[in-house]
Amino acid sequence: MAHVIVPKPRKIVIINPGHGRKDPGCVPKENGEHIFYNEKMVTEREIVWEVSKHMKKEINDNSMETNLEAAISVQLMYGEDYEHDSPGERPDLAEKVKIPVKKLNEQGYDVVFHISLHCDCVENPSAEDATMYYWDPNDEKIARQILMKYGENVVMNGEQIFFGKRSQPVQQRGLKVLVTAKQLGVAAAYIELGFLSSPLDRKWLIDPECQKRMAWVLSSEIINIYADKAV
Ligand SMILES: [Zn+2]
Question: Distance (Å, rounded) from C-alpha 155 to C-alpha 214?
Answer without folding.
Answer: 9
